Model the fold of this input.
Amino acid sequence: MTDKQKFEWDKYSDQPYIITNKRFKKQKKRKYFFAHLALFLLFIGVFLLAFFWQFLMRFPKARTQIGVGVNLDKGRVQYELVEELGVQNLIIRIPLADIDNIDNYVDFVAGFRGKTILINILQNRENIENDALLEKNVRLIFEKLQHLATEYQVGNAVNRTKWGFFTVGEYLDFYQLVQKIKDEQFPNLQLIGPSVIDFEYHYTIGSLFHQKKIKFDKLSALLYVDRRGSPYNRQYGFNLKNKITLLSAIVHLANKSNNEIYITETNYPLKDTAPYAPTSEKECVSEKDYAKYMRQYFDIVRKSGKISRVYWHQLVAPGYGLVDNRAGKIRKMPAFYSFKKIINEKNSN
Done:
C-alpha cells in the first residue's frame, strides 16, 4: 500500500480520516525523527524571543473583517444564505484530488457575484509527491480562477499527517513550487500560508524561519480553541487573546511573511451530530453554547486589533456549521442568526 492510499476522505466531517495504522505512523516518525528534532530546537529559541518581544513591541492596529466558508458539495442554497447573512468575505475549498471537476468549482465561485473570494487549495499526497502534477494542476486553478479570486491559501492544516504532509520541509517545497508558478505567470495573485492548525506554533515557526526563498503575502492560521470551550479559557496558560498576541509577535519577528494575519478556519463541534461532528462527543457543545462561544471568539479577535480577517468554518455543516442540511432540509441554527447579527453590527459601524 502506497502513502497516498493511506489518506481517505471523511465526507461527513469534511476532512481526512485519522490515520489509525500504528505501524505506518511509527515508520514515519522514525524516518523524519531528525527533522522533527530540528524543528523542536528552532521552536525553543524563537518562542522565547517572541514571548518577551510581545511585551515590548508596538503592534499596528488591524480592522477585522469576518467571513465564512462555503463548499461546492453543499449546494446552490448557499447563494441565498450568504445574501441573507450579508457576509462579504468567503473562503472556498478546491481539492487537488478533485481537479477533474474544476469547471464545476469555477461555476460555483462565479455564482457569488460581488463577493471577496479566498480560494483554499487542498493538498493531497499524490500532488505532494509529484511536482509535475502539482505544477499542472495549480496552473490550471490559477488560469481558471484568476479573474474571480486574487487570494489563494496554499495548503490546509499542514501540521496534521492525515492531511498529507509529513514534515514542514515537505510543505515548504510544495509552497515554493506554487510560488514559482505564481511569480512567473500570475504575478497579480497573492499566496497565503502556512495554514497551521491549532496552537502548534512550532510548525508556524518552522514555516517562517528557514533559508528557502519563499514568502507568504499574508499569514494564515487555523486557530481553533474548541477543545477548551470558551475562548477565554486557557491552554498552557494562553487564552485566545494571548495566542493571537504571541502569533503576531512571531510573524513580526520573521521575514518570510507580510505582517497581515488571516484566521482562515475555526468553529465548535456540535452535540449529538455524529458522524458529522469532527471530534468526539466529549468536545462537543450545545447549539446555544456554540452561538455564545462564536460571539466571544469574534469579539476577542476584533478587540485584539491584530487579525485582518477571520473565517468561520463553515456555512452548511450539520456537525459544526451554521446550517444543518440533514435529510435534505435546511435548518438555520441559533449560530446562523448570531452570525447575521454580528455582520449587521459590523456593517452599521
User: Anything to note?
Assistant: Residues 90 and 117 are 5 Å apart (CA to CA). The chain has a mean pLDDT of 95. The longest strand covers residues 190-197. The domain at 20-348 is CATH 3.20.20.80 (TIM Barrel).
